[in-house]
Every structure is written in structure tokens, then in C-alpha cells.
Amino acid sequence: MKVVICGAGQVGFGIAERLAAEQNDVSIIDTSPRLIQAITDTLDVRGFVGHGSHPDVLARAGLDAADMLIAVTLHDEVNMIACQVGHALFDVPTKIARVRAQSYLQGHWRDLFSRDHLPIDVVISPEIEVGEMVLRRLSLPGAIDTVNFADGQVVVAGVRCEEDCPVLDTPLRQLTDLFPDLRAVVIAVNRKGRVFVPRSTDTLLAGDVAYFSAQADQVVRTLSIFGHDEVPAQRVVIGGGGNIGFYVARELERRNPKARVKIIEDNAARAEAIAQDLDRIVVLHGSALDRVVLEEASVGDADTMIAVTNDDRVNILSCLLSKELGARRMLSLLNDPNYPAFARGLGIDAYVNPRQITVSKILQHVRKGRIRGVHSLLNGAGEVIEAEALETSPLVGRPLKNLDFFDGMRIGAVIRAGKVMLPRGDTVIQPRDRIVLFALAEKVKRVEQLFRVSLEFF
After folding, report:
1. Alpha-carbon gap, residue 413 to 217, rounded angstroms
2. What one-character DSSP code corresponds to residue 242?
3. What is the pLDDT of residue 453?
4. Local mean pLDDT, 10-residue blocks, the chain (458 residues)
5. CA dihedral of residues 447, 204, 357, 448 (deg, nearest 10)
6. 46-49 vs 25-30, strand pairing mode
7. What is the dihedral of CA 43, 45, 46, 51, to 10 degrees?
8. Which pLDDT score, from 0 to 100, does residue 107 have?
9. What are phi and psi of 84, to 5 degrees?
């Protein structure tokens, strides 16, 4: 597949890295010669210096022969115009744009991105995606990563196995015997930086991060089995009143009337503006690194401190200061992929990575076949994928135990006619079943082939 990417920042680099590794033809555009030099020195891609919305630059990048245009510059308007130019002058089949300003995304302006106006096929809003991830973390504080599939019926969550985890050194196949009515499957394990697909004979060790797929109403129980009984946060302090912090606060106010939330915002004008749009939430003007301000926000009584400023270092330090003052849990926004391990070593409980979340959302539309959802794990070491099985899929019609192509993959759930089923050896996949599975990065192409429409289908 031939793809043109506008924007060589963290998101653009992440997408180019994944697509180039899968042998796609990738061209990337940016106004910064330094960024283009860095990405072409690192990846097997072609780089072009220029404005991503200019027709001559897009032409040089080969947009006339491209299957997809992905516009992820820092400027919404450049991304939108790039898609407009790609449609009007180059007839690009699929156009994806990152749009951050919430004004463009309000419901009563929904026709803006229609084919007759700004013909963008997929609009990605990182602030909303990241905000929803933060809200899921607050509702499931024992998990370090959560994502919904199958219209919310299935949740994939990551959980850290501490020294007191009740299921350590227990073969995974015995979990079914110990908890026969538990609708959850361990689909991946990260052990000291090595990600692998577990077999039924494997055991979990202290320090492992296990990723499980579970029916939505079984997630809390599954976390409890792994030794995590943390209750959802009711007292929350948010450091940073930008788009993400404001979105989280507004949704907490709307979804959880009992929540007590305070926001700390360094910019006076911004603090005043968001205070006018929130009813019950207290907005404090000051720095999340100021001990006096944190004490005024009663961070010592908080269930969770959420640090979501634009500066990773501020987020880490404000979490550490809040922990010293007595906050029970810390959740930090971290853009730099080198920081998570460092932050965990300092005692920060969980983090969210906007780049990983945005890349996952875009990959959902890049993947071939009947792919309905994608979530990238651990900087691209693997992907959780939701896909629909068609009549021509080699998965259909035979018991799973008789299929020999699941090396590096593991099915976590099968959804049939709205009902979630756990995969067993004698499970037979039927046409139109929706399947949630984990695949190591090198097996993703195989997953696409399993769910792709073949010529015989027609």
C-alpha cells in the first residue's frame, strides 16, 4: 500500500515506523528539514520538505498514486486542507485527518466533514481519545491499560502482577478450573520488556504485566483475582486545564455526580474560561508544581492525581510531589516513549501515551480486511485487533484446536449475535462472528489475511 503522511512529529513518526516495518511504500512531508532528515535516516521512507497542504509538495510525494493520505501536522487547518486537496486534485481513496480543536467536532457542525464540504473519511481527535482512556483508568484503577471492543461488550486490560498476586506460578489452564464461570482469557504477557503470547502451560511471575480479554461485567472480578481491588476514584485533582484536562473534568461532572474534582491551571485566562463552563468543579489558578497550590487543592486527600499538562517533566514531578503530600494514586500523561519505565520506577502508578492512542486509532483504518478495531500495545510490540470473520476466512468451519496458524496470536473473545463467548479448543468460528485477538507485530499481516475478502466470496 502507498501512503503519504503529512507531519513528521511524534504521531507521524510512529505511523511511518509501523507502516514501513510492514513493507508499505511510505512518503512523509514536513516543513522541518531537521525532522525529515531524522526520519529518513531512521526509517525506510521517502521524505519531502514543504507544506503538507500545498499541491506541488503533495504531487512530489506521489499523492496521485497513493491509497491513503494521513494528515497529522500540529495544525488542524493544514490537515483539513491537505485532505481537501487530496480529494479535489488527486482523488485519494482514503483521507485521515487529526483535528484537535473541539469547535470543529461539535454535533451541530457534523456536516462539515461530509463529501460535499471537507471530504475527510476519518477524523481523529486525540484529546477525546486520550480523555476517554483517562476516564477508563479512573473507573478501573487496578488496570494499567484498558480498551473497549465489540461496542463495549469486551474489555482488554493490562494488570501488573505484584509479589502478592494470588495466581502467580499457576498454569494458565488451571485458572479455568479454579474459576469456571470467569469469562476472561490472558492473551499477552510483558516480561521484563519481552512480549509473548502465553500458552496454557505457562505461568505468571512477579513483575509480569498480563493483558487479559474479558466480558465487560467481568473486568472488576478479574482484576480482583490478580490482586487488584482498588475502588474507582471519587476525589480527583487534575493538573492541567487544557483540552484533555477539561474534557476529563467535564465528563466526570456529567457521568459521576458524586465525584469531587479540582483542576489546577497555570494560565489565568484559561482557568477563568474553563471555570465558566463547569458547574461543580473547582478551578485553581497556579502551577501543578507549586506545593502551596497542591495543598490548597487538597491533593493529600485525593484518590487520584491526574497530570495532563503539555510537559512530560511537569507531569512526572507534579505526580511525585502529590504522592509525597498523600495522594493515593498517580496517573500521568507521557508523550516521550522513553519516560514510562522511568516514571514507573519512581512510583507513578499508570500513564497514558497520546501518540500510542492516536496511532492505534489510525491503524484501525489502515489495516486490510474486516478490521473493526485496533489497539497498539507496548510501543508497537503487538496489537489487539477486533475483526469480523467472513464465509471465505480460513478460520470458519473448523474447531480452533485443528487450526495451525495461531503461532504468535491468541483469541480472547468471540462475539456471536451479540453474545460474548470464550474461545475453547472445540469452538467453531461461524461467518459474521466478531473476534478479539492479540497478535505480535510480525503476525499482524497474517491477521489481515485471515479476515480479508477473497475473490471466491464474489
Report:
1. 14
2. S
3. 54
4. 94 90 92 96 95 95 95 94 94 92 72 75 87 89 89 92 91 86 91 91 93 94 92 92 93 90 96 92 95 95 94 93 94 84 78 84 77 83 91 87 86 93 91 94 87 51
5. 0
6. parallel
7. -90
8. 67
9. -60, -45
Which helix (DSSP H) or strand (DSSP E) does residue 352 occupy?
Answer: strand 350-352
- Find the distance separating the first CA and the last CA of the chain, reported in whole Å: 23
Beta-carbon contacts of 433 under 8 Å, excluding residues fewer than 6 positions away, are 388, 389, 414, 415, 416
Nearest of 218, 225, 213 to residue 410 by alpha carbon: 213
In the prediction, which pLDDT does 371 show?
84
Would you report the helix, strand and coil content of the chain in percent, each value rounded to 5?
Answer: 35, 25, 35
Distance CA 127, CA 139 (A): 18
The pLDDT assigned to 369 comes to 62
Q: Which residue shows C-alpha cell 474534582?
A: 261
- Cell 492479540 sits at which residue? 438
Instruction: Tell me how many degrees the CA angle 75-80-83 measures, rounded to the nearest 5.
Output: 130
Q: Is 368 in a helix, a strand, or coil?
A: coil
Biggest alpha carbon–alpha carbon distance for the chain:
69
Question: In terms of Cα–Cα distance, which of 19, 7, 17 is closest to 365?
Answer: 19
**Nine-digit cell at 88?**
479535489
Angstrom distance (rounded) from CA 360 to CA 346: 27
How many whole angstroms separate alpha carbon 275 and alpha carbon 256? 18
Start-end of H helices in 43-195: 55-60, 76-90, 126-139, 172-178
Q: Grid coordinates standing for 107?
A: 454535533
Q: List the Cα angle 249/255/258 in 5-degree steps.
A: 85
Q: CA 257 to CA 438: how far, in whole Å?
A: 36
Contact 373, 357 (CB under 8 A): no
Pairing label, strands 304-307, 235-239: parallel
